[in-house]
Amino acid sequence: MRPRQALRLSRRALGGLALAAGAAMLAAAPSPLPAQENGGSITVGLETDIRGFDTVEGGVLGQTGEIVMRTIQEPLLDYDPDAKEVKPLLATSWEANADLTEYTFKLREGVKFHDGSEFTAEDVAAHYNRILDPEMKSRSRSFISVIQGAEALDRYTVRFTLAHPWGAFLPYLAATSMSGPIPARANVEAGEQNRHPVGTGPFEFVSWLGGDRIVVKRFEDYWAKDEINLDEVVFRILPDTQTRFASLKSGEVDVIWTDRGQTIVNAQKDPEIVSLHTEGAGAEILLLNARNAPLDDARVRQAVAHAFNQPAAVKIIWQNTKPVAASPMGDSHDCGEAKLRGYDPAAAKALVEDYGKPIKLRMVHTATPRGREIGELMQQMTKAVGIEVELIPVDQGTLVQRAFGRDFDIVGWRIADAADVGPQLYALARSDSSYNLTGYSSPELDDLAERMRTASDIDERFELQCAIVAELNDQAAMLYWGGGSFHAFTTQRVKGVPPPYRGAVDVTRAWVEE
Questions:
Q1: By CB neighbour count within 10 A (0-12 exposed, 13-18 middle, 19+ buried), where does 158 fall?
Q2: Is 123 in contact with 232 (CB distance < 8 Å)?
Q3: 172-201 burial, b for 16+ CB within 10 Å, e for fewer?
Q4: How far apart are CA 455 and CA 470, in angstroms?
Q5: How far apart are CA 304 and CA 385, in angstroms?
Q6: Band of pLDDT at residue 331, cut at 50, 70 and 90
Q7: What is the pLDDT of residue 35?
Q8: CA 505 distance to own-chain centroid
């Protein structure tokens, strides 16, 4: 075995095959932050309430949920987006077999859950096997189904078995979306995890007043408690963007995440506000439901694609604070135009005429300013080419329910920023995936997705991801309305908040300077 201090996700390491068989990771505790001040409370302004913390009942977190989740629960591994390294967290070391289909992890000993129970390999195995159980219908399953199962070998050793080598395996164990953070098995079995989460994180859950706030407090038995400074974090649900920004300026709120273009522009000009920004992968997308007439006809989907003016949408909605996108790959790989059907109203009108029947569609969007704006733009742009779109504003939870229930013609969605967006593309593309929300499929697309997932060379993997994107673009299964660019803002008194990787603000190591 060859020891390493951290696994650098270079182009080859990301593919997984650059890992020497049996390479082990050594524990490396994060370096302490300089000049912290202990104690105090901060308030974080959130755009929406969340559906819950349980991987089955809660479904998906979104950026709002992920911000809260990071304070309460932790994944096995950590990910450094600047160094592009996977690092130890709840797992301190690991090794792989020769063909990279089995990974054995040693867990950090002495870690406590918030209920006082000990974190063990049984909690890890139970969490992942529950996600993978088809009976559970977890929405995370499609992303990680290469994992065949997890087995507790002893109290502090867990083994994962994969169907084949998988380049995204280690990054996914570091994810702070729904599949990564490990809950207390007993709390899950008691049916309490969704509304009263118990994790190993630096803060423990206190209360949740739906639509108003979630409160967490410092966990005194946290395994790295010397790194934690705050006594309390209050998450306020403030759906109105202007109210959220005004609360930041007044000091009522200390931290906000936002993607609202005008708010970002105004905040960046304010010397009293600290701006945090990252560029990444992922994209804002619109899903077109190919299961339903008339979108089951490619001509109608392609007409909608040619009617939609992405550069105008990016300018109007995001104030050009997001890039125009042709793929969700970001800077990880250049897919070129990837057969994107760009704005071409003449082509859209010709397709509508060729279809020869009235086209009426329903667009489900959030009742947020962002949701209303993209809905109104889509309605106006499609009307100009002879397509009628009815707008259906709903709350975030209802939008997720309708998306997974396939009760939409067009719906706003997001491909999340990630070290590797391959698992998301696979889940969106495969005909047998519960996450194929568009319903578009073909034997060729299934083949591309499978080859991408099993590719042993990272360059081949990226090229196949681009090929998947190109088919989805050509068939107009999804449209883009902005690439991966993420912004958060804090007051001057808050220190130690890193740029928002994946668009989610991490306040776990923050402190206040009065």
A1: buried
A2: no
A3: bbbbbbbbbbbbbbbbbeeebbbebbbbbb
A4: 18
A5: 9
A6: confident
A7: 56
A8: 12
Q: Determine which of 29-38, 395-404, 463-472, 492-501 has the lowest per-residue pLDDT on average.
A: 29-38
Contact 40, 511 (CB under 8 A): yes
Token pair recorded at residue 459: 């360059």
User: What Cα–Cα distance (Å) separates residue 207 from each residue in 53, 60, 188, 213?
Assistant: 13, 20, 18, 8
Report the distance separating Cα 107 and Cα 88, nearest Å.
Answer: 9
Global pTM reads 0.85
Q: CB within 8 A of 209, min separation 6: which ones?
A: none
Kindly give, in sequence order, each residue whose CB lies less than 8 Å from that of residue 133, ignoring residues fewer than 6 positions away.
none
3-class SS shares of the chain: helix, strand, coil, % to 5? 30, 25, 45
d(Cα 178, Cα 58) in Å, to the nearest integer? 8
Count CB atoms within 10 A of the CB of residue 486: 24
**Residue whose token pair is 């990680």:** 144
- Write out the DSSP string of 138-183: -TTHHHHTTEEEEEEEETTEEEEEESS--TTHHHHHT--STTSSPP
Neighbours of 501 (CB within 10 A): 19
Has residue 218 got a pLDDT over 90?
yes
C-beta of residue 256 within 8 angstroms of C-beta of residue 245: yes
Mean pLDDT computed over 379-399: 96
Backbone angles phi, psi at 57, to 5 degrees: -70, -40
Order the strands of the 7-8 sheet from edge to edge.
7-8, 85-88, 77-80
- Cα dihedral 406→412→417→418 (10° resolution): 10
Q: Is the pLDDT of residue 512 over 60?
A: yes
**Residue whose tokens read 């009976």:** 135
pLDDT greater at residue 62 or residue 421: 421
Distance CA 371, CA 107 (A): 43
* Sign of the four-CA dihedral 66, 70, 73, 79: positive
Query: Tokens 């953070």 appear where?
Result: 181
User: What is the reported pLDDT for 36?
Assistant: 62
Helices (H), 203-332: 241-250, 261-269, 298-307, 310-318
Closest CA to 472 of 411, 430, 419: 430
Residues in the chain: 514
Q: What pLDDT does residue 10 have?
A: 38
How far apart CA 286 and CA 304 sit, in angstroms, is 11
- 46 and 238 in contact (C-beta within 8 Å)? yes
Burial 370-407 (b: 16+ CB within 10 A, else e): bbebbbebbbebbeebbbebebbebbbbebbebbeeee
Please, are residues 490 and 273 in contact by the beta-carbon 8 Å criterion? yes
Torsion (CA) 354, 355, 358, 362 in degrees, nearest 10 = -130
Q: From 284, 347, 346, select the one nearest 318 (Cα to Cα).
A: 284
Identity of the amino acid at 345: P
Q: Please give the single-letter amino acid code of residue 141.
A: R
pLDDT by residue (tens digit) across 53-97?
A: 999 998 878 888 999 999 999 999 998 887 778 999 999 999 999
pLDDT of 419 reads 80
